[in-house]
Structure formats: structure tokens, C-alpha cells
């Protein structure tokens, strides 16, 4: 050096760690954007999917709730096949009007938008956490963590939004005169049956969500990985996403269907003249009165029509919305 002063490297004592810089603000912003994108994409995915199948969804709930006991004129027989379900939909249309097919859909939207937003966002976060734990950062999870991520995401969403699911079930199986609005359902249930009624059927819901969400996310993610490995393409096309989502919905809903029936029976017990006290007693009564297949699997054929459509639309909408939002934010096609 020109001034004759020799520079020496600074050495830290061995027992003192050098101070590292804090995470850059941009990293925090990127994480916030990622969470916000997942919430927005999930909310849109749930809204689009449920609105598309709302008439079939209401019909399925009426199957499970056995609304024939309330409306013997409107429902002279218990439908067991898609053909009978379509006749029921047409009869409801003639009796109550076209928009009655979407009765309860406002309650569904109030529930499904936060539910889907939380579920998809939680799934992304659980995938990241499990990936870090198992050492798969940036790579696809192995099968077991893949299933666990889906189950945890579904459980988280169900726990946070369950009372809204109860309200939606009540509105779907009752006449318009009984409940005038979502708020009216809450008020009447709280006044006439008690606040804890809002959580009736919660246990079978959680027990059903674990295989349903776990298998749905597991199947969809697995099919995407298999497709990428065999086709050489990083991302499937929208029709392929719909097909993968349909397969995921078919497998997930078939596995959890009996618990879904039990959940609906416990939720609608107050207006259908029953008192179901536990999951096992509810199952026993359903099987004793209606049989195993005609009881616990009532409406399953309708679910095989509606479920794959809804789940396929939901997964596809989520993925494509995520891709679109990332393109808008970054200006490049950073795909999921």
C-alpha cells in the first residue's frame, strides 16, 4: 500500500460467531406473495368448482340426509342412481324453480371460499415444511409425506370452517320457509338446539377428511410426477390436469364416503327427526334401517359423477391461477 500500512484480515474469536445478515426484505415479500397467491388461487378454485356442481351437490346432500321424510310428495322414492337423481333435479326445478337448484350455494360459497383458500395454501406450506424435514427441498415429496401433506391441509381447513359446513347442510335439506338466510340458520340453531350443535358431526368430518384430502392431493401430485417422468414435459396441459384431478376426486371421495354420509346425518338430525349421539351408533342405525349399501353408500353413484368434475376443476383452476399470478408478478412463466 502507498501509505505503508499493512491490512490484516479480521479474525473472530473461536467461541464467537460472526454476525450474519438478516433475511432480505425482498425474501419476506416473496414469501408473503407466495402465501397470498395460494390463498387467492385456492379461493377461486373452490368457488368455481362448487358453483359448477351445485345442483348435483344439493341432490347428493338430500340423498344422504334422507329428505324424503320431510318432503314425501316431492321425493316419492329414495334415488339411488344418476338417472333417478336427474329426475329429482328436474322435479325440484318444476316445483321450486330454476334457481332453487342452487339453494344453499350462498352458504356453500361462504364456507368453500375460506375452506379452499386455507386448504390449498396449507398444502403448499406443509409440502415446504415436510420437504425441509425430509431433505426434499425443491424436489417432489416421496409418497408418504405427499399423503401427510394433503391430510394435514384438509384437516386444517375443516377445523377452521366447520360451522359453515353445518349451515350449508341445513339450508340444502330444508324448505325456503324454514331458514331465510345464513344468519337465520345460525340464530335458530343457537337458540333452539344450542351452540354445540354447530359442531355436530365434527369427528366424522375430521376422520373423513384425513383419507379424502390425503388421497386426493396424493393422487393428483403423483399423477403429475408420473406424467413428467414419462412424457418429458415439465407441466401437464389443462385437459390433463382435469383428468388427473378427476382421478384424485374419484379415489378420495370413494374412500371417505361412508363417513361423509354419517357427517350429513348428524348435521341434519335436528330437522329430520333423529338424535344421533355418536359415529358408531349413527352407522349402526343407518345399516339397521336401510342396509349397508343403500344406507352408508347412498348417493355414491351421484358422487362418482359430481366428485371428479368438482375436484378436477378445483385442482386445475388452482394450478392455472397460480401460474397466471406468477407471470403477472414476475413477467416470466415460472410454473408450479
TrEMBL record:
* Recorded superkingdom: Eukaryota
Solcar repeat segments: 33-129, 141-226, 236-324
Bilayer topology term: Multi-pass membrane protein
- Keywords, alphabetical: Membrane, Mitochondrion, Mitochondrion inner membrane, Repeat, Transmembrane, Transmembrane helix, Transport
Keyword hit for Repeat: yes
Which subcellular locations apply to this protein? Mitochondrion inner membrane
GO process annotations (BP):
transmembrane transport
- What's its catalytic activity? 3'-dephospho-CoA(in) + ADP(out) = 3'-dephospho-CoA(out) + ADP(in); ADP(in) + ATP(out) = ADP(out) + ATP(in); ADP(out) + CoA(in) = ADP(in) + CoA(out); AMP(in) + ADP(out) = AMP(out) + ADP(in)
Q: Write out the similarity annotation.
A: Belongs to the mitochondrial carrier (TC 2.A.29) family.
Name assigned to this protein: Mitochondrial coenzyme A transporter SLC25A42
What is the organism field in this record? Calyptomena viridis (Lesser green broadbill)
Amino acid at each position: 500500500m502507498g501509505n505503508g500500512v499493512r491490512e490484516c484480515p479480521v479474525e473472530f474469536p473461536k467461541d464467537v460467531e460472526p454476525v450474519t445478515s438478516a433475511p432480505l426484505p425482498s425474501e419476506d415479500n416473496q414469501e408473503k406473495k407466495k402465501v397470498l397467491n395460494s390463498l387467492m388461487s385456492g379461493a377461486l378454485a373452490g368457488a368455481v368448482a362448487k358453483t359448477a356442481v351445485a345442483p348435483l351437490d344439493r341432490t347428493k346432500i338430500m340423498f344422504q340426509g334422507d329428505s324424503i321424510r320431510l318432503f314425501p310428495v316431492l321425493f316419492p322414492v329414495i334415488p339411488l342412481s344418476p338417472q333417478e337423481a336427474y329426475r329429482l333435479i328436474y322435479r325440484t326445478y318444476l316445483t321450486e324453480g330454476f334457481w332453487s337448484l342452487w339453494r344453499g350455494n350462498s352458504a356453500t360459497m361462504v364456507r368453500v371460499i375460506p375452506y379452499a383458500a386455507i386448504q390449498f395454501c396449507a398444502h403448499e406450506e406443509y409440502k415446504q415444511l415436510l420437504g425441509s424435514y425430509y431433505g426434499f427441498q425443491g424436489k417432489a415429496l416421496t409418497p408418504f409425506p405427499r399423503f401427510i401433506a394433503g391430510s394435514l391441509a384438509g384437516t386444517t381447513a375443516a377445523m377452521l370452517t366447520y360451522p359453515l359446513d353445518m349451515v350449508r347442510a341445513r339450508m340444502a335439506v330444508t324448505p325456503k320457509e324454514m331458514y331465510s338466510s345464513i344468519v337465520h340458520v345460525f340464530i335458530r340453531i343457537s337458540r333452539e338446539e344450542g351452540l354445540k350443535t354447530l359442531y355436530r358431526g365434527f369427528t366424522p368430518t375430521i376422520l373423513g377428511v384425513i383419507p379424502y384430502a390425503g388421497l386426493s392431493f396424493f393422487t393428483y401430485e403423483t399423477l403429475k410426477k408420473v406424467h413428467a417422468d414419462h412424457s418429458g414435459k415439465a407441466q401437464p396441459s389443462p385437459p390433463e390436469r382435469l383428468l388427473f384431478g378427476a382421478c384424485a376426486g374419484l379415489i378420495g371421495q370413494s374412500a371417505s364416503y361412508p363417513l361423509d354420509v354419517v357427517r350429513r346425518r348428524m348435521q341434519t338430525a335436528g330437522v329430520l327427526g333423529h338424535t344421533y349421539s355418536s359415529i358408531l351408533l349413527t352407522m349402526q342405525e343407518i345399516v339397521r334401517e336401510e342396509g349397508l349399501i343403500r344406507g352408508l353408500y347412498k348417493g355414491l353413484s351421484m358422487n362418482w359423477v359430481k366428485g371428479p368434475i368438482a375436484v378436477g376443476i378445483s385442482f386445475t383452476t388452482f394450478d392455472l391461477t397460480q401460474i397466471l399470478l406468477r407471470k403477472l408478478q414476475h413477467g416470466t412463466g415460472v410454473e408450479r
